Amino acid sequence: MNLNWGEDHSVLVEVAKSVFPKYSPLVDRANSVSYADQLAQFRDLDWLQLGDATGLSSECAALGSIAGIFVEMGYALVDTPLLDLTIARDVAMVLATDASTKLAESIGSGAASVIPVLGREDWGSQLNLENGILRGTALAVAYAENADSFLVEAVEGSETVVAIVDAGSGSTVAAMPNIGRYPLFAVTFEDAPVTADSILARGASADAALEVATQRAAVLRAAQVHGAGKRLLDITVRYAQERNQFGGPIGRFQAVQYLCTDMTINVHLTSAYVRAAANAIDNRAPSQPHLALMCKQAAETAREMVHSAHEVHAGMGYMVESNVHLFTNAAKRWQYDFGTDATNDALVTSAVEHIYAGAGL
Amino acid sequence: MRTPLSKEKEAWRTEIREFLAAELPRRDAFNPEFDDASEQWEKAIEFSRKVSAKGWIGLTWPTQYGGGGREPIDNQILLEEFAAADAPMINSVGIFLAAGTILVGGTEEQKAELLPAISGMHTLWAEGLTEPEAGSDLGSLQTRAVRDGADWVITGQKAYTSWGPMSDVLYVAARTSPEESTRDAVSIFVVDLKSAGVTLHPMRNYGGGVQSSTYLDKVRVPAKALIGDEGKGWQYIMQAFYASGTVEPIYAMQEARLRDLLAHCRTQAGALDDSHVRADIARLAAMIQSQRLLAYEILGNNDAGRRQPYGGAVQQVVAKEFEPLFAQVYDRVLGPTSQLTAESAFAPLNGKPEAWYRQSFANHAGGTAQLKRMVLATRGLGLPR
């Protein structure tokens, strides 16, 4: 299996390296770029139409290459709505109806800001559609206040429905203040009308499109964790080299070396899992257990890297003037983007059981 | 899982609980890392004065110095109940570090003057032990005190001074004899924070509180500001931590959090039937009990005059390594809502888990778990450094 990044990876990475550091909080805490400016920048860079979730076009950047952008985004510890817009576009592309194709084009051109509102089992939120009326509250919707419209996953009877709902049409958005000061919102639909025209898909085709988009999103988020981990490792190793105690740098103590090496192993493993998963998706051979393993590793890395960094930095890491807490905040949020350990464990266990029963993957 | 103590001790615990129920409404429960807002500080002062009026500050000190003359176990029970209630424990530097030092090495005059002022809540102390370049390595202290006639002149920088702006005096460890070995070169001083040459620069911490960088620029103090004997600071500091005979009862605070977690789980259908949740809760219960058993072992050893060569390092390693683990397990049980702050309507337990998570990274005070492991290995097991 080729675990190298895609061919156009280095080009995208070079561009990303010139984009994200400009508004990295690691460079200047006061750095921020408005949603509109970010959207404009991504549009100008053609990043809103990277990749082909249908796997049909060979001209689009491979997922493994797009992941490079997210590695750099993580390395600069910058938050953007790029992942959310990509998810919405991916769903629309995979559905491949006239309406969804038009929607994908409009997201890709930056003309429409479409934010996904997906069912989040771990948050206990689900939207219900009945007789053309959408009801319920979706939690942890990122950038909801900037949406022109929502790409909504709802349940109608026993089947999944994907619909497009205009923001403000029977919906209210409430901020969900959180540790990372990430723009999370609760979106409540109260008797929001959903016409037949606005339903993009239902049943198996809706489930399949959501699964593709979710898998691609997990890879990109894991890439972001990898990037942040690389940066935090750099910062931590440098601190261990420069901080003197008991007559020399603390990095000469095995206890500190093990903390740094544990970080390295976790960060490196995350990178390997990301490349493997991206490779599988690009080759149209994604497997849920492999993705679950990647998710489990990325969540573990998010948890462990900040723990180790704090242990090495000790009192200094606890001070706000150090940057360690910024990674801690981000990691706390990311670790929940990969599903629960229990869900991932169940997927892997079931697959292993399958293999040992002689059925193969 | 607390083993019941004697009827007399349980009655003491009940007395403390009744006091807390009457004097510390839940809305006033307070965590010192967070609540440095002036309004919270005033509540904490008011509450602490009530504690002082009960004679509960300096419970184990001799009565002639304003103490209670009680056993360490009584103080441990008091600390457990205060921790469980998130009661404001302000002036802990004065009550434990400074008072411990004074009891161990102070002159009779210093004991008679300084200790009643602490137990009476008249003098609040800030810590001036840690330095930016030394941290846990007391041997690398750079702050110097030089004798000038009848006075001492102190120059240096201290880091992470908790409660600095609210305190009256600073507990200062300074090098007084550069030629001598570290163990004979450090002395302890009490420095009025209003003295000329003392400046505090606030540093916010991740838990939400404020500590300070403290600069001492040729601060002149009288001879009586030297606690005990010159050059004995190292020994005083080491012994001060044992002076109360008690152990910081982090486990009591964690037990209260576990109780809240269980109460929350009971409101979530099926949560307690989940084997992962049950496993997590069992882990939490085990870690709390481990700390409690180790704490009481130390208490017993102190009472019997036995001292392990590595001090309380086993208990401290367990406590320090379990504190972040506690937060992680708590997060896993609560799921993603644990990242929501108190301002969010969707935050469980009023957003406390988000704050507890941030606070769990403050397990470095007094030395990291790695440092305590090193103490255990070298002093305890005789392994080479």
UniProtKB/TrEMBL annotation, chain A:
GTP-binding is among the record's keywords: no
Record Pfam families: Acyl-CoA_dh_1 (PF00441)
Keyword annotations from UniProtKB, A to Z: FAD, Flavoprotein, Oxidoreductase
Regions that span the bilayer: none
Family matches, as InterPro entries: Acyl-CoA_Oxase/DH_mid-dom_sf, AcylCo_DH-like_C, AcylCo_DH/oxidase_C
Domain of life: Bacteria
Domain Acyl-CoA dehydrogenase/oxidase C-terminal: 217-343
Keyword Flavoprotein recorded: yes
Cross-referenced PANTHER family: ACYL-COA DEHYDROGENASE, ACYL-COA DEHYDROGENASE FADE28
Protein's UniProt name: Acyl-CoA dehydrogenase family protein
Provenance organism: Rhodococcus sovatensis
From TrEMBL, chain B:
Entry keywords, A to Z: Oxidoreductase
Pfam families for this protein: Acyl-CoA_dh_M (PF02770), Acyl-CoA_dh_N (PF02771)
Residues spanning the signal sequence: none
Domain of life: Bacteria
InterPro entries for this protein: Acyl-CoA_DH_CS, Acyl-CoA_Oxase/DH_mid-dom, Acyl-CoA_Oxase/DH_mid-dom_sf, AcylCoA_DH/ox_N, AcylCoA_DH/ox_N_sf, AcylCoA_DH/oxidase_NM_dom_sf, Mycobact_Acyl-CoA_DH
Acyl-CoA dehydrogenase/oxidase N-terminal domain boundaries: 6-118
Keyword match Oxidoreductase: yes
Domain Acyl-CoA oxidase/dehydrogenase middle intervals: 127-207
Keyword Oxidoreductase tagged: yes
Name this protein carries in UniProt: Acyl-CoA dehydrogenase family protein
